Amino acid sequence: MFKVINWVIVSRSRLLVDLLDCRWPQEFLVKLAKATPATMSSQLSEQQISLVVFDLATIDLQQAYQLQRLIEREHYVVKTVFINFPKQVDAKFLIHPVTTSGAFYTDADLAEISSGFNEILKGRSVIPNDLHKSLMGFENEDESEHLTIREREVLQALLTGSTNLDIANQLFVSESTIKTHLYRAFRKIGVSSRGQAIAWAQTHMHEVRV
Hints:
Blueprint: E1 5-10, H1 14-28, E2 30-35, H2 40-46, E3 49-55, H3 61-74, E4 79-85, E5 100-105, H4 110-121, H5 129-139, H6 149-158, H7 164-171, H8 175-189, H9 194-208
Parallel strand pairs: 1-2, 1-3, 3-4, 4-5
Helix pairs in contact: 6-8, 6-9, 7-8
């Protein structure tokens, strides 16, 4: 008897979800469900999901990071794929070597994505070469010892109770840049929330001061 494979796409774009729902069930013989960041967790608990597709064009990177961490902790047999992966923002902290099966840049068309998903169904990973090379160095970093100067400055600012906007103004950069520094720092020191980062900094800040 044929076993139904369940995929979930996490996106706020109804147009994209409807388009993929017209293609993927027939193309890959899967059942495609849709979810928002708020409903993904319950769907993973209620259904036997094998793959989660994140649409990064409609999901904040912080939300995607938190959801990826949830899958790593509680649903490690579930694989993840990122579509509309940004090129201009350093988002490689989202990629997990065990759970992430693929990443497709924003300029990838449906034919390229479909070809990649066929490879993923065969158990292969599909990650752009340049992203894969940068990940090799990223994965070899030793947590706090390899925090950048700017990441250390941002962690230090957390201890003063500063908001992202406050830190951005202090460092003369955009608020989105501060978010990126925080996400990368979170990944390196092994935390998943602002509160955990502050607790970590209170214990280890002597190691990250510049």
